[in-house]
Structures are given as C-alpha cells and as structure tokens.
Amino acid sequence: MLPTISPPRALKNQSHYWQRTWMLYLMLVLPLAFFAVFRYVPMTNIVIAFKDYNIFRGVWDSPWVGLKWFDQAFHSRDFYFALRNTLALNVLDLLMGFPAPIILAIMLNELKSNSYKRLTQTVIYLPHFLSWIIIAGIATQLFAPSGGVINNVLGKMSLGPVDFLMKGGAWIGTYIGLGVWKEMGWGTIIYLAAITGINPELYEAAEVDGASRWRKIWHITLPGIRSTIVVLLIMNLGRILSSEFDRPYTLANPTVMQVADVLSTMVYRVGIRSSQFSLTAAIGLFQSVVCVLFLIAANTIAKKAGERGIW
Questions:
Q1: This prediction's pTM
Q2: Which residues lie closer than 8 Å to 100 by C-beta, 6 or more apart?
Q3: 170 versus 7: which is more confidently predicted?
C-alpha cells in the first residue's frame, strides 16, 4: 500500500483562506464593476480635449487638433477670470473652513453634559444634508436688501441695509460664510472620532500635574489629532483648483459674475449651453492635472515634515 502524501502546508493554508474569505471577495465585485464602468471607462473620452469633437461623428471619428483647445483656453480672458475666482474662493474656503471643524470638535469635546453635547451635534450636522438650492433660497430671504431678516435687524441698528448678494466683496463673505456654516458640523465627525482615540490616561496625568484646560488641549488634544489634520489638509489642497457647481451657480447673479464665475460654471456655460465640448474638456483636464500636482506636492511636504501622508 502506497503512503499518503499530504499537500504542502502553504497550499493547505491558502485553500483554507479562500474557503473563509471568498464571500468577501465576491462582495467586491459590484463596487469594482461600478468604478470600472462609471469611472475608468469614461476616462477614455478625455481625448475630446485633443479633438475637434463632433457629436454626430462620435469621439473616435472626430479629427485630431492637438493642443488647439488648450491654446484657446489660455488665451481667453474669461478663462483667467474664472481661474482667478476659483483660486481665490477655494483659498478663502480653506483658510476659513478648514480650522472651523477642528475648533468646533475641541469645543464639543470639552462639554461636560453628554445630553447637551448630543443635541448640539445633531443641530450642527443638519445643514450638511440641505442642498445648495434650499440654502440659496434661505439666503435670498435672509439677506435680501429690502425685507430680508438680517437687513431689517441691521436697519434698526442703523447699520444697513447691506447688499450681501449684490456687491462683490459682500457676496464673497456671504459665499464663504454659508459654506463654513453648511459643512462645519459634518467635518467635526472625523475630528471627534480622532479625539476619542486619544488615551484618556494622558488627560488624567496632565490633571494630576495641574495642567489647565488650555494646556491639555494644546499638548494632548491637538498633537493627538495632528495626523488626521494633516491628511485632511492634503486632501483639501488636492481640490484647490476644483470647485463644486451648485454652490456658486445658485448663489451667483448677473451683478456679481465678475467674482462669482468659477471654472465649473464656465464649463457649464461654454460646454453645455454653447456646445463647445472640446474646449471645456481641455479646461477640465487642466483642472485635474493641477489638482493632482497640488496633491502630490502637499503629500511630499507632509512626509518630509515627518507625517505619514496619504500614501
């Protein structure tokens, strides 16, 4: 009788591994298919930026024109106005909106009443779930020069009325303020989660040593969430040249287009309404390349400064 030869241990371990985890890999099929079909396959149409695209001839049968559309965009005054506005609004958003959830998360963490903390969290999260269409309608009612609630109050204090949505500088302040108000509460979720990961024994030791509340925040809380802050800062810098469409589109009006027209609204106006698809594809590709460069640069600087970065 021949002796039984057992399979190699590595092969047995691999077989056992697949028996335990095949369902997890099966669950990945739909997400991977989604990204392949709706994210990566459409990326092949980026060649529109290098073609004189004709909707009747299709993407691949349209003639190549090289960098014609990039040259036309870079020689367009409207493009530079939109580029300037995009950078200005995004930088202001970063300066005002990025620290806000950090400060709010630290303030919520310092609250002693858990019931009041939960109520506050619920209230400040709610604006995130409102669309910009709704917020623009609310803003119109609140900031209207005549009949608006804010201007009525300012008028009684002899400080108004103020054209919040009709003057360039006031419109920028309103635009940034509404963005901070809408997303500040939602951003605190990540920072509160990071704060809960800090070892509570550090706070107890600091309290024994007589550290004040400000000292505990400065020497324990902020260093404890520093890696989270760096990762989110890198991701925000990666979006420095991109801009959402609905926010500037719904808040803008003809009187403030000089400061409100950004690249996303220009792409809509030129590409969709004027059917210049190749030109707007070139602008979109330019945006994406610049955002990727900012992302790589920010990640490299963070890693040289001793942080982990995002890859």
A1: 0.84
A2: 180, 184, 187
A3: 170
